[in-house]
Amino acid sequence: MKNLNGKVVALTGAASGIGRCLAIQLAESGCHLALADVDSNGLQETIKLLLSANKVSSHIVDVANKEQVYAWADEVVAEHGHVDIVINNAGVASTSRLDEISYEDFNWVFNICFYGVLYGTKAFLPYLKERPEANVVNISSVNGFFPFPNNGPYNAAKHAVKALNQTFIQELRKTNVRITSVHPGGIKTNIVRNARFAKGGEDKADLAQEFDRVAGTSPEKAAKIIIGGIRKNRKRQLVGKDAVVIDLLVRLFPQGFADLVGLAFEKKEKKLKN
Ligand SMILES: NC(=O)c1ccc[n+]([C@@H]2O[C@H](COP(=O)([O-])OP(=O)(O)OC[C@H]3O[C@@H](n4cnc5c(N)ncnc54)[C@H](O)[C@@H]3O)[C@@H](O)[C@H]2O)c1
User: Fold this and answer.
1) 259 C-alpha to center of ligand 1: Å?
2) Is the residue at 109 inside a domain?
3) What keywords is this UniProt entry annotated with (predicted)?
4) Rounded distance between C-alpha atoms, residue 43 and residue 16, angstroms
5) Is 2 inside any structural domain?
6) CB of 189 shorter than 6 A to ligand 1
């Protein structure tokens, strides 16, 4: 979708990080916004940062709740008249090993990261199909093509989001709806601070600090790259140099790279226990 001016965008996870930066930059491009999140204070903060010329609506929506997402889609069209772009961005993470994680924590991550995207896509599709051109942008991750240890539910959800995106691309080929599968590497946001942590595992503040140190891309840059992907109707969008490198390593050395990463995590866990 080359021209974003005047387009109506429905965006989840708009209260923080990549979502907030997407909202700001989409508003600067002339878009009208329907912003959703579970964090009402964060949403209000985002709205304060937007250009006032655009029409903006805010909605408290838990993306893991199918009824709420479908009701939101209807509300967006009632308030804005139509919708042109949907960005399923809301996401959460956890830090436990798969053999130790509770089903409650597993489902929390999976329901938001996977079902949130499925509901967000299916709820809006009938409305998107009515438009001359429309885009769905579903945020996966590098974890959508390479699983990192201590991220089991996130890896599973993000792989599933990638599969969903690829299926939608095949099935919607002859329609007006373009799908972009987005795969960011480390982006300096609140994702680790908002994660659920393993009991007796890494300290939250330490890990958040370590993540801020290694995450190579700012959320502003990530949003810019994602919007570039929308403008070019990209089917797949990597975000950050680390994502490009990991993508290459996975293709060149699928097992060798996985073994190396597994070894590095094992060493780190040993160090933590001593
Ligand atoms: N930060 C990274 O390194 C990174 C890397 C790859 C992919 N991603 C993905 O990018 C997306 C945005 O994450 P971020 O890094 O900006 O994190 P963030 O924690 O800064 O923002 C996530 C937002 O999602 C919202 N949210 C959480 N649960 C929700 C729910 N049930 N319903 C509605 N909103 C909910 C949060 O309130 C928050 O505003 C996520 O899908 C994440 O998995 C992030």
Assistant:
1) 28
2) yes
3) Oxidoreductase
4) 8
5) no
6) yes
State the Cα–Cα distance between residues 89 and 139, nearest whole angstrom: 5
Whether 12 is in the pocket of ligand 1, judged by its Cβ within 6 Å, is: yes
**DSSP alpha helix (H) spans, 140-203:** 152-171
In a domain, 65, yes or no: yes
Give the largest CA-CA distance in the chain: 61
Distance of CA 92 from the midpoint of ligand 1 (Å): 5
Q: Do 158 and 184 form a contact (C-beta atoms < 8 A)?
A: no
Q: What is the pLDDT of residues 67-94, one digit of tens each?
A: 999 999 999 999 999 999 999 999 999 9
Q: Which domain holds residue 88?
A: 8-273
66 inside domain: yes
Q: Which CATH number characterizes residue 211's domain?
A: 3.40.50.720
- Measured from the CB, is residue 56 less than 6 Å from ligand 1? no
121 and 88 Cβ atoms separated by less than 8 Å:
yes
Q: Does ligand 1 come within 6 angstroms of the Cβ of 92? A: yes
Question: Among 12-21, 60-69, 234-243, 265-274, which is the least confidently predicted range?
Answer: 265-274
Q: Phi-psi category of 244—alpha, beta or left, where left has phi over 0 and alpha has psi -120 to 50?
A: alpha
For a mutational test of ligand 1's pocket, the pick from 95, 191, 220, i.e. the residue with the most ligand atoms closer than 8 A to its C-beta, is 191
Number of domains comprising the chain: 1
DSSP, collapsed to helix, strand or coil, labels residue 179 as strand
The catalytic residue positions are: 154
pLDDT class of 200 with cuts at 50, 70, 90: low
